[in-house]
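**User:**
My hope is that you can spare some time for a protein that puzzles me. This is the protein in question:
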Amino acid sequence: MAIEWRKQFDLEIVDPRPGLVPFVLGEPERTAFAGLSGISLPVIAGIDGTSFEEAMLITHRGLSGPAILQISSFWRKGATITLDLLPRRPGDDWLRAARNTNATAKSLLGREWPARFAELWCDRYISSKPLAQMTKAEFEDLAQLVHAWPIQPHETEGYPKAEVTVGGVSIKRTFIENDGNAPRAGTLFHWRSRRRDRLAGRLQFPMGLGERACRGRSCLTSKETFVAARRRAESAA
């Protein structure tokens, strides 16, 4: 409904998209990891300098869990996210120490991750050689991938599975004019696809319409009504 008010209030719209939503993987990753549905592990999910350290859950279609849901709000179609699969073991000193043993990546990572995930992940991305026999390039690939596994989601699960809508009505300006001057900058309102008071248990989304004048309890039917409500709110502040 908020988007439909755009023409009436002459509002700028930021392209809306689903947020706090699971990812759907493309092929062949979707098929390969579908058999691990239900497995979770701690990760740091990141994109463009934003990151969240939480759990990741593998689903039959892709990835979910708190870390994925939160990073999804910053993702756009075609972008790549990175997953640190060993957030509790920063750096590669522990891997380098294992080069003096006959351990393979699969056996070593099987102690850190669920065994089935370690087996499939290593079979797909890492040499089966013992670490002591890996070339420098092979070892560096391993050290890089465990802390920055690049994933390019095919799409999200869309609005039916989304907890919020990202974008929507811009909050760059309001209708309040100051003695004939240009509209002042300020919060207009924040609209969400579902009424939630949390962002995956971490971030708060204030819900307001005309700031504190209308907290989702009434609907403004005209530009004049909005202006009046905003002025009452400012007078009461």
Remarks:
- Residues 22-84 form a domain with the Elongation Factor Tu (Ef-tu); domain 3 fold (CATH 2.40.30.10).
- The beta strands are 13-19, 23-24, 40-47, 50-58, 62-64, 81-84, 149-151, 155-156, 164-169.
- Residues 174-221 have pLDDT under 50 and may be disordered.
